[in-house]
Amino acid sequence: MAGESTPGNLLVPGPAEEKDNASDHLNDDLPRAQIKRIVQRKLAALAGGTGAGTGTGAGASTSRPMTVSTDAVVAFTESATMFVTMLAAAASDVCSETDKKRQTINANDVFKALEELEMPDLNEPLKASLEAFKKEAEEKAKTKKRKAAENTAAAAAAAAAAATAAASPPPVEGAAVPMAVEPVG
């Protein structure tokens, strides 16, 4: 076998397989622009500024934005892709071990996979992000439901107004229209 097995049943390609999979692998990468944005945002947060600062050490300037070279972006992208692949394989194993019939990986499988990959310190931030995501999705659903109810009420009011207008007879051409006359005084 050309590849070797690693934790999570990931198969690391051997030299012969690397050449065959090179073009396929490039299509599996996460979006580089997104990775670069995440890296720059994190570097800015670590520098303690809202903009991307260069650092907090002696003589460091927070006015210049931190730049990330193209090679570094490629390295971050490859690392993130490998991490996601490794975590997905471990979560798949957890899912299979938990219930042989279940084929859907859930958040608990990912939490357990992080523990098996000896990264349990990532569980708490991940759980917090998951809760924030669920809360945001719930708020969006409530807003959408409220807007739909408002639109339905507005449509019903418009339909009632149209029905009232349709029920009154149209004015006859040349007919006198009663007018209020004010006394001149």
Automatic annotation (TrEMBL):
Locate the region Disordered.
1-31, 159-185
Q: Which InterPro entries match?
A: CBFA_NFYB_domain, DNA_Pol-Epsilon_Subunit, Histone-fold
Under the heading SUPFAM superfamilies, the entry gives: Histone-fold
Output one GO BP term.
Answer: heterochromatin formation
Gene Ontology molecular function terms on file:
chromatin DNA binding; protein heterodimerization activity
Coiled-coil annotated residue ranges, if any: 127-154
- Where in the cell? Nucleus
Q: Which GO terms describe its cellular component?
A: CHRAC; epsilon DNA polymerase complex
**Domain called Transcription factor CBF/NF-Y/archaeal histone: residue spans:** 67-114
Q: Where does the source fall among the domains of life?
A: Eukaryota
Which keywords appear in this protein's UniProt record, sorted alphabetically? Coiled coil, Nucleus
Cross-referenced Gene3D superfamilies? Histone, subunit A
Q: Where is this chain compositionally biased, Basic and acidic residues type?
A: 16-31
* Main localization, broad class: nucleus
Q: Protein name, please? A: Transcription factor CBF/NF-Y/archaeal histone domain-containing protein
